[in-house]
## 1
Amino acid sequence: MFSIGDKIVYPMHGAGIIESIEEKEILGEKKKYYVMKMPVGDMKVMIPINNVDCIGIRDIINKNDADKVFKSLEITCDEQTSNWNKRYRENMTKIKSGNVFEVAEVVKSLVLRERQKGLSTGERKMLNSAKQILISELVLAKNMNPMDVEELINERITT
């Protein structure tokens, strides 16, 4: 159970801070929700409390792990398959995992691919989404501004 003020990660959406816990009636059913404010995009997300475990909600990483994420972006990655469909599915699985290191790996591989060969529209959308998820968690973990975090990410990804 999380509390107001906790910094959490919602896989596929990103990290945020629980702003309130509210009870809402939807389709005749009353449920409690965490209301999470996202640091990137100034968005709010409602998360059903009874689904927290199956959704994969977790605490954000600490500063040391955030430093490890930045460091992981500097390490060269394995060449991904040239099959667009297979690559897309593999990357989507990593993003859905909610593991910040896997999301960073997706960001790194797509940025490198974009620099070398360009990206399809689908992969460009995936890169933007993965980057926002990664940035949102690093912003909260390092207490930094989103533009500075994005700059650090881009600086560390090298060919």
## 2
Amino acid sequence: MSEAPVSQGLAAVLGLRQLIMDGELGAGDRLSEVRLAARLEVSRTPLRLALAQLEHEGLLEPVAGGGFVVRSFTGRQVVDAIELRGVLEGAAARLAALRNSGPRALGNLVACVAKLDRIVAIDGAPTGEEFELYVELNDEFHNELFVLAASEVLRDAYERVLALPFAQPSSFLKAQADTSQFEPTLATGNAQHHEILNAIEAGDGEEAERLARGHAELTVRNLDAVLRDGGFERLPGSSLINAEAGWSRQVAAGLEH
């Protein structure tokens, strides 16, 4: 009996987040607890906890008089979120290098890069299945940095950033899969994975941090490529992003500094 509230709470968080990411709930929409509880098939108590959780993650904001609306984000905020992820990944890579206890500890990271190598080495564009595997392994590489850093503080901060719909390492790769920029992006990204791994193996925390922070800049470049290719609507959570005048300039500013 005691597991029911936990199960409903998780269902409410995941379901509500998915409605937002899929665009069923768009920026500025005011949320109705009654309708959402019915839509997600949960009771009001776990739904309220889910609303509070998504407010904490930054996807919702409270309104005067009570309740929540779905947040919207500017281009500058998108770039800032990506750069913050880079700062956190840089700190994790530095700690991973400084706390490196030997080859066995790095085994998962080494194996992950080796699997990525095999996908990048395929002639021509990867198949859909191969691309999905690349995305999964790419996310695994980034997560493993925090495993090796062994810092709960960094991990908690990282997970909060990743809750935003555009901050994940693979966000814009998914929207880029059908563009001419796809294959070079995979090769460039994996070459950077090798450089980060080498710095961690060498115990060079300063270099590992520099490389990991630079690696995050590739996400901004991927975003720029998606915008130029007209693939904005393919972005996860694109309904939350204000793509009005100045959006491309804001992204370009992120590339320049």
## 3
Amino acid sequence: MGLIEPDWKISEHIRAFFTCRTHGCSAVPFDSLNLSNRVGDLDQSVEINRSLLDVPSEPKYLKQVHGVNCVPAHRAGKEVEADASFTRKRNEVLAVLVADCVPVLLASKNGSCVAAAHAGWRGLANGVLHRTVEAIGVSPLCAWIGPCIGPCHYLVKRDVFNRFPNRTGFREKSKNQWEMDLALIAADQLSNLGVEVFGGGFCTFCDVKRFYSYRRDGVTGRMGAFIWIE
């Protein structure tokens, strides 16, 4: 299974990884390690793909809605809308699914608490990362920013641009169009919250072999970011 592991300086008791799209059983256009059962893939294929994950317990998948709700892991599930979760329990696996949005994994440096957040432009504009850091409630923290769409392929118009007053992460392309760097905006917000930031530097749109991209392909699978305390 193709995995990317965070390159952060963190407690040895924290485990985390990000899945690539390879080495699963889903057919085109979800080929092949699709982890989402909300995109039109066969339920059986998703179940098999999820069973391939090397994790100590069933991951706490969220009903992601591009919001800012951050819940304790025991509340995660199909009925609770949330885009982030946190836990202080051992072997309780947090998860977020993405295919262009920013996956952010967070952990206290002493290994006492971890969190996972899904942040698209709406979540970043409305404060999902602030809510997640607030929910963790301890410091110092580290965060790892996983693969997301890069500014090279993410153009937005003035309605989105105006939601970010400090203008970090935008480059004007035309009168009403800007390149938006989601990873840079996430890193800037986290840094302003006192969080040490790692990761970034990936583009899901550019790397067809490793990553799903909703903006590139439309109907496609989802990758996952996972974190837990051993």
